[in-house]
# Entry
Amino acid sequence: MRLWLLLAWMLLAARPAWADAPDACAPRILAVQAAKAEGEAGRPAQGWESVTLPEVWTRRWPNHGGAVWYRIDWERGCAGDAPVALGIDGVSVAGEVFSNGDLLWRDASLAEPLSRSWNVPRWWLLPASGLHPGVNTVWVRAVGPSALSPGLGAVRIGDAGMVAEQYAQSLWRQRTVYFINAVLCAMAGALFLLVWALRRNARGGGAYGWFGLMALAWLAYLTTFLAETQWPWPDSLTRGRFGMVALVCYVLCACLFTFRFGGQRLPRVERALWALAALGVGAVVLAPRAAAGPWFGAVWQGAMAVFLANCVQFQWHAWRPRAGGRRVSHRLLALCWLVFVLVALNDLFSVLDRWEVARNWAALSGLLVIALVMLLLGGQLAQQMRKVERFSRALEEGVARARAELAQASAREHTRALENAKLQERMQLAHDLHDGLGAGLVRGMALLEQAREPLSNERTLSLLKSLRDDLRQVIDHGSSAGAAVPETPVQWAAPLRHRFTRILDEMEVPSEWRIATQWQGTLEEGGRPSALQCLLLTRLVEEALSNVIKHSQARRVCVECAQPLPGMFAVRVEDDGVGFDVQAVQRAGQSVGMRSMAARAERMGAAFTVESRPGATVVSVVLLLKQ
# Structure
C-alpha cells in the first residue's frame, strides 16, 4: 500500500505545474468553523472553533450529543454569474443545510428516530438569487448521539460539473459498492446455508454453514451503511447496538469458518472465542447511553484484533511445510486474509478517522466475500468435476464390460436355442422314422407274409417306391437349414423348393413358388428373421408340404413368402386338395403335424392359422420380426 501511495505521489509530482494550479476565478472555501448547538435555539453566537472536514465532533467535545452547527464561509471569485454547486459526502446522523438564509435541504426527521444521512452523499445548485457578491456562508446543522461518531463529511463548493462528478464518485464509493456487497452476501449466505443443509454430515460440511452465517452477519452489519431510516429500531443508539452485535457475530463466524475450512482442531481457542463473543455482545447491549461511545469503540477494536489474530495464525497453518503437503485452497484463503492484515497495518499508521476506517473495512470485506465465494465454489466445482469424470470413466468401463458380458450371454443363449431346436428336430426325425417309414415297412412285411401267392414284380416295385418316397420325405423333413441367416428370402427357400418340387413333379402335381427377392433391412433393424426363426420356419413349411403330399390329393400347390409390411414376414402354403375339418381335428388331438406346426409358430412368436374346405386348404404363418 505504501508503495502504491509513493508511485501515485511520483506521478502527481511529474505533472505540469499548470495542471495543479487552482483556478483563480473558481469559488473557494475561506473557513470552516463549528459550534455546539444549545437546545432548539438558532445558530450560536459564540463558541465557534475552526475545524477540518471531514470531522467527528466527539474528538473535540467527547460527551456532547445532540446537534452541532457548521459554518462554511466561501467567496464566489471572478466567475461572474456562473452556477455554483454545493456537495456534502454525508451528515451524521441527520441534518439540514442552508445557503446564507435559504433552506436547501432538511432530513425527514431531526428527532429520534432520526433519519440516517451519515453515509449518503448529496449535492445542490445554490440559488443565484440568494448569493452575495462577496463572501457567502453555508450553514449545516448535524444531529446525532455521541456514541455514533457524529459529525460532517467532506464539503466541496465549485462548478456544477465538478461537484456532480465528485458526487457520482462518492455515491459509488459510499452506496453502490455496499449495495453490491450486500446482494453478494445475501446470495452467498443463502447458497452456502443450503449447501450446508444438504451436506451437513459430509466431511468439511461445517465450513459451508459457518461461511453462510458469516455472510449473513456481514449483511446485517452493512445495513449500518445502507439504511436511511432507523426502522425497525426505536432510535439511533439501538440501531448502533444491533450493528455492533452483527460485527461481533461476523468475527466469530469468520474464525470458526477458518478453523473448519482449514481442518484446524482448536477446542480451547473456540471456547475462548465464544466467551469473548458473549462478553462483547453483553457489553454492547448493556452499555449505558452516556458511555456507549467508548464501549462501542472498545468492542469494535477488540473484534478487529481477534479477527486479525485469526488471519495471522492461518498464515502459519496454510504456508508451513507438512507431511501431506500444503493445500491450494488453504493458501488462497490465507491470501484473502493477508489482504485484511495489510490494510489494517496501513490504517494503523494513517490519519484516517473511524468513519474512513469503517468504510475501508466494509468495502474490503465485500470484495473478499466475492473472493471466498469464487474460492469455495471453484474448488468445489473442480472437485465435483473430477469426481464426475472419474465416475463417468468407471461407468463407461462398467457399461462396456456389461455389454460384452451381455453379448456373450446372448450368443450362448442363441447357441443353446439352436442346439435345442436341433435336438427337438432329431426327436421329430426319430418320430417320423417310426411313424412313417417304420409303418410302411410293417405294412409291406405284413402284405408279403399274408399274400397267398408271390407278388408280381409291378406290385413289389410299387411297394419299394412307396418306401422310397417315405424315406425321402423323412430325410427332407429332417434336414437342417443351418445356423446362418440367408442373404435373401430366395436363398432361404431354395432348398425347400428343390426337394419338394421333385417330389411333387413325380406325383404330377404342379407347384408355384412366389418368393420375395430381398429382405427389407438388416437383422439389427428388424428387417429379416434370425437364424433360429429361419430354422423353425423351414420345419413348419416342410411339415405343411409333407401333409399336402400325404393327405391332400391336391392337383396344384402354391407357396408364397413375402414381407407385406416392414418388420413382418409372412409364409403361405395353399393347395386345392380334398380339405378337412380343422376344428374336428383340433378337438380330436390326433394330428401330430398340426400340433408340431403350432408349437413351432408359438416358439418363434408367430401367428399360425389353418383354413380348410373342399378344394382349398391354406396354412399361414405371420412372423413379427425384432423391432
